[in-house]
Amino acid sequence: MSKIAAPTGSAPERVAAPSGRAALGLLVLLGSLTAIGPLSLDTYLPALPEMTRDLAASQAQIQLSLTTCLIGMALGQLVTGPLSDRWGRRLPVLVGVGAYALLSLVCALAPSAPALAAARFFQGFAGGMGTVVARAVVRDLYAGRAAAKYFSRLVLVFGLAPMAAPALGGLILRLGDWRGIFVALTVIGALLAVAVAWRLPETLPATRRATGGLAATAAAGRALITDRVYLGYALTQGLAFAGLFGYLSGSSFVLQDVFGLSVGAFTLVFGVNALAFVAVGQLNARLLDRYDPRPLLVAGLVIGLLAGLGVVTGALLDAPPLVIVALFVLLGSLGMVMPNGTALALDRHAAHAGTAAALLGGIQAVVAAGAAPLVGLAGEGSALPMAVVMSGAAAGSLLVVLTLARHR
């Protein structure tokens, strides 16, 4: 196992994990920070068909705004993670959520599809700053099974975003147009900035912060990318997230345009799938009392692959019920994959949790960013492109965890 020495001292000071109401408040706040991603991606999903008409753009051009947002999130995490190892956790996330609120307003004013895609890149960058710090805070406070259980509990909060986001987007569409969705994200970002300033503790004391400037940061990065097992878990997460992103970018077109579901029915299906993700995440927390994270991760990936094959079969047979049921199982399996994969990756590099979380999030976002163009460019009017992307990602993630992330 590749390790990085602690930045200062042999027994650096650690912040004790909170308890009682403080612990619950921190869980909700960290869950809200990690929910910036799904809020940014899911809230405007019901509006994608309307946006193609309003901005006189193709499906692929509008889906590009999903990809640019995700790439921005990747870069935001890659930049902010190492900085949080040097400057502490609070300052970077405060700057990030504040900028997110302002850039969401810029998205609301975008006059064209290319301008929207550009604005979404910077919005994603700012959102990624908060997401990566939230993961690092968890690793500052917990390790091993405890970290995996905490990430599973975060799913309870994080998973509410995919359920609430499309419903919020659909409600706004009933009252106005798609631009109002980004105004709502502006308000959410501003409220998050206030909550962070008020409630987020500093979990990285000065005695544990990295020193040595860019050379030390580069050394930490080299240690991470040469750690085969860490890289394997990161790629596993990236491929699993690519399957999820294929669903996010394609589901509104498949379920509404191909299968003829109304906005309300699509919102219901989307919310039920998110509920499966949350429920399995809580089941995973219970199972961690008896099992280690790795076998649970592998089990989740196997179930996801079988469900992905079910989505392909339903698409080939033009059977909407089969597609919807298989999507439910596949999205649920990610509630077991995401917490365990994250904990297994971050557990290997506690001394540079911010950098490790940044690379993990960056790999996730970069790998997943290719899913939306594949779904859009492979053709319209069929569920098969989305099905192939999701099942292929499931197969790739299982292959990587059994080979590259295999422990010796």
UniProtKB/TrEMBL annotation:
Domain Major facilitator superfamily (MFS) profile, chain residue ranges per copy: 23-408
Primary location class: membrane
Record-annotated membrane-spanning stretches: 21-41, 61-79, 91-111, 117-138, 150-172, 178-200, 230-249, 261-284, 296-317, 323-346, 358-378, 384-405
Record's bilayer topology term: Multi-pass membrane protein
SUPFAM superfamilies: MFS general substrate transporter (SSF103473)
PROSITE patterns linked to this entry: MFS, SUGAR_TRANSPORT_1
Top-level taxon of the source organism: Bacteria
One BP annotation, GO: xenobiotic detoxification by transmembrane export across the plasma membrane
Family: Belongs to the major facilitator superfamily. Bcr/CmlA family.
Protein name: Bcr/CflA family drug resistance efflux transporter
UniProt keyword annotation of Secreted present: no
Organism field: Micromonospora sonchi
Pfam families cross-referenced by the UniProt entry: MFS_1 (PF07690)
Annotated keywords: Cell membrane, Membrane, Transmembrane, Transmembrane helix, Transport
Keyword Transport belongs to the record: yes
